[in-house]
Amino acid sequence: MSPLPPQVISPLDGRYRAAVTELGEYLSEAGLNRARVQVEVEWLIVLTDRSLFGSTPLDAAQKAALRALVTDFGQAEIDELAELEATTRHDVKAVEYLVRRRLAALGLDSIAELTHFAATSEDINNLSYALTVSAAVREVWLPKFQSVIDALRARTEEFRADAMLARTHGQPATPTTMGKELAVFVYRLERIQKQIAGNDYLGKFSGATGTFAAHVVAEPSADWPTISREFVEGLGLGWNPLTTQIESHDWQAELYSRVSHANRVLHNLATDIWTYISMGYFRQIPQAGATGSSTMPHKINPIRFENAEANLELSSAILDSLAATLVTSRLQRDLTDSTTQRNIGVGFGHSVLALDNILRGLGEIDIDRVMLADDLDTNWEILGEAIQTVIRAEVTAGRSSIADPYALLKELTRGKRIGQADLVAFVSELEIGDDAKQRLLALTPAGYVGLADSLVDNLK
What we know:
By secondary structure, the protein is mainly alpha-helical. The protein has three domains: 17-117, Fumarase/aspartase (N-terminal domain) (Fumarase C, Chain B, domain 1), CATH 1.10.275.10; 134-205 and 246-373, Fumarase C, Chain A, domain 2 (Up-down Bundle), CATH 1.20.200; 378-459, Fumarase/aspartase (C-terminal domain) (Ribonucleotide Reductase Protein R1, domain 1), CATH 1.10.40. 59% of the residues lie in helices and 5% in strands. It is built from 19 helices and six strands. The strands form three sheets. It has a two-stranded antiparallel sheet. Strand 1 (163-168) and strand 2 form a beta hairpin. GO terms for molecular function: N6-(1,2-dicarboxyethyl)AMP AMP-lyase (fumarate-forming) activity. Residues 329-449 form the Adenylosuccinate lyase PurB C-terminal domain. This is Adenylosuccinate lyase. Pfam families: ASL_C, Lyase_1.
């Protein structure tokens, strides 16, 4: 057998690339290297702005030319960094050499030694990861998440008054409305969204063991903590003043745990909608040209929600692992985070892919009101809860002397299928006030939904 030509291993870079390609702008090796160049360039500008070590501030044109190294970062730089790393065997050192080359090309050799000045690789890396992850969340993940919430909210409003039989423990239970049930998910997801949107993104820039030791030896009179804080905050990040060689990654653990939590709520949504489809509450809208089964032409498989389930599980497995492991680094530094952080994009990629599937799936279903009504009409026994509750209220009010209303209704309904006529006959003979009796005689399963419709307004 002849060998295949080179192939990607991850389906995120193959079959599903179109759905996650936006993440590659940030959570790829190229995106990370562009951020590294940004950090190196901005550090140069900070040092020269303060005229440290005899340097002079760069003029506007020089700063613009340096910052263009970031905005114009492309395939040429990607290839050049690969070439440099093949020699250096060190990714951050390759970035330093690239920046030095560009300084020479711009006639700025005089400040070349300020490139990567007093910085350890982690000073560059932690800021670069914070920049790329925050951008990926802000520009890609959160907008996609919001799109799902918006679509779900629209379905919530559309179905808010559609009564349906609930199933607690999988058994017929007090009715609700489809809109109210979907509103529960909207409420949960919006709460998590606020937490994720407000997540901290911290950075450090304090040298090999977080002590500014090299900085102070080079220039004892400089206020290095203030310079560091202003530099980090100038990148749009929060400053972490107390670290070892590494930024402690706690903000990452918080973020990944929250995204994983969102994944799990979405997983619950996907399994519920899948179940409603299997029960006939939702019908799937046929898509032109689509095949549900290779042998059964009648089938429309709920593939969008099944794919979402699998990708949410993969995403959470990766993000949970990152959250658990990144918070530990032996003594002042180890390199376990070097490999793990390269999988941040994989964790987010599977989540984005799942969001795309859910969004598409929500657009390919419609409610079957006939099925909802039929299911309610064949389960009159669920009104046993209403009847025994009203009897208890009547006993308390002195309008009934019935002993143990719960047991009375349990005897009538438990494990039995009864109809409207059975309940009408039962209620008609009850010793309760006339108003209560009339309310019960007028009650139907479809009308026994309490405040379900109006509860949806809690989302506004």
